[in-house]
Model the fold of this input.
Amino acid sequence: MKSGKQLWHDEIESHVKNMIKRKPDYIKLYADSFSDKSVRTQEIYVKIAIEFVRYLRSDFNMDVWNEKFLKDIKLVHCTSYLKTYDDMSDNTRAQIAYAIKNFCEFLYDNEYVEKNPAQRLKAPKDRKTHEVTYLTKDEVKTMEERIRLGWTKQVKDSRNLFNRPVSPRNHHMILRDTTMFHLAIMTGLRVSEICNLDLSDIDLEEKTAKFIEKGGFERVIPLPDPVCEDLKKWIDDRSLFISRFRKDDGHRTSALFLNNHGMRITPREFGQLVKNWSMDIDKHITPHKLRSTYATNLYAQTKDIYLTAKMMNHKNIKNTMRYAVVTDEQEENAADIAGHMYD
Done:
């Protein structure tokens, strides 16, 4: 039986192969040039290269199937494409810039172009800090209530949902959804990390979870007691739930979290669930906002930016600083403290 890491690796490789089908040969060769990088990096950079080429065709009428057009790519084309991401975060825009530079470097190294057109392309400078969206304690309770009632569909203001009995099928989903929700807001795991968890990755005796983090590295984290309680309930119930499906598929039976068909739940499906759970909240809540909730509230409780960075597994503490929300009350307290610092 394949491990969660191998399944994750195979899934991304399959996605890359599908992306480059019916694409020009230079794109296929570019995809093959990532032997020394992670498959996740390959997936992201190849996707951006394909979108860049598509942009050159649609906005500059370049004949992208004839590789001779590559010699016509200029720095202005690269900067123009980067500007289409002006409404995105600084990190996203920087990643786009690095990917375009990497693609153009590949073209130069393989003599498609005489000069690297993106050699002077610069990653965008930091702009003003974006406001972080996260859930308050009351909003967490609101989402927990919707999950508890078995609201798995995007239905809002339907009074009959409060009075309907919870069916056995919904009972399975409620346990699963509660566990995934608490795992996200109490550990800060990314959606892909949660979806890729296997049963064997959970150690309830040691209260730990083993997962494949961004970049393909294995990591073990401690689990809070409430999450362990949720996991125990779901794992006990999961055996009853999966008994409704065939048991000869290792991909099904190894996954910790299953969809309604008994298959490993996908990040897209998790995202739709989060959207349904947050229907009563006037914020755009995504799985990543659950991670933001963890980081923001952990910092608020500990006031330790280094601990928060460690738990978020941030290599650069500047990424963690975005979650260090300062309230008006804290500013007033700071003023009071400053007034007595030299007494």
The CA atoms of residues 233 and 296 lie 28 Å apart. Strands lie at 202-203, 208-212, 218-222. The longest strand covers residues 208-212. The domain at 137-329 is CATH 1.10.443.10 (hpI Integrase; Chain A).
